[in-house]
């Protein structure tokens, strides 16, 4: 049964707190009629939905497509400014906009399940996000007059995950989806774990935000989170202190630290197949939450797309953004008081006008203008857009290696033969102490989304604040005498030993700017100054116990040289002449990731205090054990 809550007319100039994007010059935005309805799903649960459509479009003018976003974050505040300020290019063209609270959130009925797994659809009780989307689309087509029978879906982060769900078991009317920073797999590389290492602060805050109530109550502690999590020995202790132990996903953290079937069931990657609809993946190179999702989902679907298919349906845009940065503001810089990267171009605005709007215009309205062959990427350093026939690009590029060598050197030349276990065979060594872990950003560390938090932009913070620590190993090139471009996936391949029986490995690829050319700072006397800038271009962690299998962890043999190999994800960056390239290695990154005891315990979530011990780490750099980064460079480039 249809239940209508309210019908309100909003003008494009409604006063609503929102960050507006520039509107197309000379374009008059439409007024909107706002309707709230409850849409029934197949099992009888009703889903709260806000509909905004141009005034008069019910009977006059051309038939309009439907643009839909489903979200766990609440749609009560969605009004005209949501569209005209957030999607001005598409708003000017004319769409019917639909926003929905997903099952169990805000005003929607039913039970919320974090990243609800896809199930077999045998009965009306077999529901998931694909069926709720299908039922919503079916209702919209029948009840929204003067629609053109086509539907698009988009969203960022969790709504990005839901946008991809709209393209699975898709309703025939769904023609195009844009998963932007989707939660592709929250154990392998998105929000909650990266290669088995638990993202402690994020998991702690986000689970309380989504599962402690039907609405969003963000965590905001005045205590430095570095001190808080150091005080609480493990996640079990921290969770108990917050009274969150019985929340469903906290329970999953505590009882399933490995990549179990429960995590695999939540993985969107494992549901993907050859694309049913056109897909535009969007990701940021400095996305602090879901950098993994868009590239992994693109790769999964692109691999299943028929070779030579004239109806190519999988596309991707990558740019110099943090989480959702392409959707707000000009996108010409990124950073905070601890570091700022400048891109010159208005990359966010360029994305919205050159890629996003033409994508939906083509698939939902047959309007020409979407000319992306496969992938577009904004190459930082050089600060220009590039288009590629595939990602990572192959034509015009070749594989290369950056080797970690003794004397803190980073070089493109393979190491020479030396006597094994000699001083010359060792590239670096340090003592890792869980009682004094390396901070992942400048302190104090605020709650993830708390007041004054700088979480959103920490990935571009100047890395010099940890370079002099004794538990960090740095490997540098000489000052570059020419530009060096790295494009595509970066793989870390370390040969290392530890005196412990477990351990974490963090590798960072850093662009060191010349002295005096970094981000602007303010001195005590308020005089503008400029300091050297160490920009982290790529970084990632691997938990040692998962070096062979994510499903079946095993202890590390103390003193044994083992190979650790993992991806730092895709980059597109030019290290300019006069800069230096650094690879930084460490074994703690706190409290972004929980501390590894560095001794074997079955479950780190409940590790006892006595398990946390100092260990000596040795990184090798010999012909037999050539620790290095695998990169792709232009055919004309030779590494220094």
TrEMBL record:
Matches recorded under Pfam families:
Peptidase_S15 (PF02129), PepX_C (PF08530)
Which GO terms of the molecular function aspect are on file?
hydrolase activity
Protein's name according to its UniProt entry: CocE/NonD family hydrolase
Q: Which InterPro entries match?
A: AB_hydrolase_fold, CocE/Ser_esterase, Galactose-bd-like_sf, Xaa-Pro-like_dom, Xaa-Pro_dipept_C
Alphabetically sorted, this entry's keywords are: Hydrolase
Q: Organism's domain of life?
A: Bacteria
- Boundaries of each Xaa-Pro dipeptidyl-peptidase C-terminal domain copy? 357-630
Recorded source organism is Granulicella cerasi
